[in-house]
Automatic annotation (TrEMBL), chains A, B:
Keywords: DNA damage, DNA recombination, DNA repair, Metal-binding, Zinc, Zinc-finger
Role according to the record: May play a role in DNA repair. It seems to be involved in an RecBC-independent recombinational process of DNA repair. It may act with RecF and RecO.
Zinc finger (C4-type) boundaries: 57-72
NCBIfam families named among the record's database cross-references: recR
Alphabetical list of InterPro entries matching this protein: DNA_Rcmb_RecR, Rcmb_RecR, Rcmb_RecR_Znf, TOPRIM_dom, TOPRIM_RecR
Domain Toprim positions: 80-174
Record-level Gene Ontology MF annotations: DNA binding; zinc ion binding
PANTHER family: RECOMBINATION PROTEIN RECR (PTHR30446)
Domain of life: Bacteria
CDD domains attached to this UniProt entry: TOPRIM_recR
Protein family membership: Belongs to the RecR family.
UniProt organism field: Roseovarius indicus
A single GO BP: DNA recombination
Name this protein carries in UniProt: Recombination protein RecR
Length: 197, 197
């Protein structure tokens, strides 16, 4: 169908989003076309706006629209504590629980020999820098309870041993569980019951 | 978080799409930001393009980018047969099966007393017009086997009785379908329509 090739192309792009397959992409595009002025046009504009302004925080790896993110520049947040997470979705999950008032460090993944992801790819050197420059006294390793997550936690713990208090989320993180799947209460319980490593 | 309000707004819009909740919208937006040049920018452009060109076919209700859609104007398709579907997603599903070579008519829903959807809202008058103008001999009522779908089918059948051959899709066990997964109504229909081997 020739005159629908723009629509087909849009469906193909939408189907690449995580959580959307071809079928839900088709449904979503039909919905967008039906709600052209109410949804499709504003959504296209908003995507363009985010594409133009979204960037990674140079300090912690969070996403925002400024060189340093809102959390890194917030005066009301506690200094001295850094919560290390694998990705921005995990940071957002922590923020939704509203229990942690310190700063974050987003690794951008986990160490993985298989995928050739070493400390440099994970912003670990930057984390080590921050210990001194921000006078950090505690690093909470809030990485997933997966094999790669735990390998990453141990690597970071080795690097920082003796320089800061090292803790990890304890209760409530299920084996193989990812932070972003957890409810706020579980995250709160896990943070409050954090243990020294 | 102030500087992320554009990102939050994008997540909120994405969460309104069918099949995406808040969580998958967050995942999708993070994925888009990570793939800014490869995915976010082209997707925003493509949405803008579709928003500017997509329209409903004036004859059948299909979506396309022209006054009459590709199916209505295709010379190679058979005249005389119209397949009536509830929405464009159903038309696309029929087209993927590549078995129907006639024309379509998209109702845009089903009759519903509760939602105050009458024949006028469903393009039924236009369907009745087409019987004469396109010399239709058969109308295939490919609407859903729901209460509203069947009410709609009966209404249309009443209007067209004696003027065309009226048919509906056979009900039964889907290819590869396991009995254990089917609802009782489907099994009943399949049994009642059983054929000699
Ligand atoms: Zn930051
Ligand atoms: Zn058409």
């Amino acid at each position: 169908m020739n005159s629908t090739r723009d629509i087909d192309a849009l469906i193909e792009m939408m189907a690449k989003l995580p959580g959307l397959g071809p079928r839900s992409a088709r449904r979503a595009v039909l919905h967008l076309i039906r709600k052209r002025e109410l949804l499709l046009m504003p959504l296209a504009d908003q995507m363009q706006r985010v594409a133009a302004t979204a960037r990674e925080c140079e300090n912690c790896g969070n996403v925002g629209t400024t060189e340093l993110c809102d959390i890194c520049t917030a005066e009301k947040r506690a200094n001295g504590q850094i919560c290390v997470v694998e990705d921005v979705a995990d940071l957002w999950a922590m923020e939704r629980s509203q229990v942690f008032k310190g700063r974050y460090h987003v690794l951008g993944g986990t160490l993985s020999a298989l995928d050739q992801i070493g400390p440099e790819q994970l912003r670990i050197p930057k984390l080590i820098d921050r210990i001194d420059t921000e006078q950090i006294t505690e690093v909470i390793l809030a990485v997933g309870a997966t094999v790669d997550g735990q390998t990453t936690a141990h690597y970071i713990a080795d690097q920082l041993e003796g320089r800061v208090r090292l803790t990890s989320l304890a209760q409530g993180v299920p084996i193989g569980g990812e932070l972003d799947y957890l409810d706020d209460g579980t995250i709160t319980a896990a943070l409050n019951a954090r243990k020294d490593i």
